[in-house]
Write a structure and sequence with these properties.
The protein is α+β, with helices and mostly antiparallel strands. It has three helices and eleven strands; from the N terminus they run H-E-E-E-E-E-E-H-E-H-E-E-E-E.
Length: 172
């Protein structure tokens, strides 16, 4: 059993290392997208008081940014693109914006037990807004009004992903 666990760990680590890297253009189902590294900034375009935010997640459990900035009260259209190839059941991603003061680690651990609810705790008063859970090659979006001025945390609530897939949502 220990040999199987060790071999599985080696395979997972190798897969993660092979998926890391810079820009890479890929074509999937008739459209082209760019695979980006985690250090690149999220695209935020403002149009008629709407902040259009494009956030990507990949198979290496990374968002393309750790910080998103918007204006208080501004309408936000957040688009999440999973630019990897792995299935939703293996490498699902979402965007969850937490209320200030929420313990991110405790929330992430609680969310990990909520598979039947796409890893969002039922009746949670800790979430401002969240996207659907998506798998490789999929896209989802949500619209919401930015909360009051302050710094909020966001994460992917798929089990264990919050350790790497998290950031600050800064409202100015």
């Amino acid at each position: 059993m220990k040999r199987i666990s060790l071999k599985l760990s080696v395979v997972i680590c190798a897969a993660l290392l092979l998926n890391c890297g810079g820009k890479e253009k890929k074509e999937k189902e008739g459209f082209t997208y760019e695979k980006t590294s985690a250090s690149e900034k999220t695209e935020v375009k403002e149009d008629d008081n709407i902040a259009n935010v494009v956030l990507t997640g990949n198979d290496a459990m990374q968002y393309n940014t750790k910080e998103i900035r918007v204006k208080a009260g501004q309408k936000v259209k957040l688009t999440l693109r999973h630019i990897g190839n792995m299935d939703i059941n293996v490498m699902g991603h979402n965007f969850v914006l937490l209320k200030r003061g929420t313990d991110l680690v405790a929330f992430g651990n609680k969310a990990a037990t909520q598979k039947e609810n796409n890893y969002i705790p039922e009746n949670s008063d800790e979430v401002i807004v969240h996207t659907d859970l998506i798998g490789g090659g999929q896209t989802t979006s949500i619209e919401f009004d930015a909360p009051e001025v302050g710094t909020y945390e966001f994460l992917c609530s798929f089990p264990g992903h919050y350790a790497l897939m998290r950031g600050k949502f800064i409202v100015e």
